[in-house]
Amino acid sequence: MEDFIETFLNLDIARQASPILIQGLIQTLLLAAMTVPLGLGAGIILAVLSTRKNPWLRYPLMAFVDFFRAIPPLVLLIFLYAGLPFAGVDLGAWGAVALGFLLNTGAYYAEILRAGIESVPRGQPEAARALGLRPWQVWVFIVLPQAVRNVLPDLISNTLEVVKLTSIASVVALPELLFQARQAQSVTYNATPIMVAALAYFILLWPCVRLLSRLENKQIAGKR
Questions:
Q1: pLDDT digit string, tens, across residues 181-192
Q2: What span, in angstroms and rounded, lies between the C-alpha atoms of 142 and 122?
């Protein structure tokens, strides 16, 4: 037991590593704060456009969404960071991570929101237009609020995945939480920084997990 505590729960090493772990946590929060709104905004635009009846617009957008949902985000990130420079485009670590996460999360948000939009009864937008609302007003005040409400658990679940996804930014040396924890581990030859990082992720995400469970239970109860 003492060996386990010394290797994984060493308080002295945790205290020594805390400055760079805090820096990594800040980077993780900044990355999530950038990725979630941009991905959600891109998802809304893609979802709305994919509901258009024009096949020349709809099918390419569907192919775009399917492609970036299917490709592993780690592969996409490595391609953007290490592959594009061969084509004369060097995004740097932050640029590659931002673009890769935007493409991946935007595609997932788009599919979730498209399902939410299709769940809104068609008669409601038609009734709103008959009352004189403009097309953008119908979307903003009638369709999108109901669509978001109908798929809110899925949106929250995807947001949790986005926050966890930030950990793969360590492969391009972006100094987020996991990268800093691995750096501290390599210096101290001890796994305690990794355990501290795992605890930080848990504390950060557990309230959202509980909220998601309550929403899912409420949604199931409402269908009975």
A1: 999 988 888 888
A2: 11
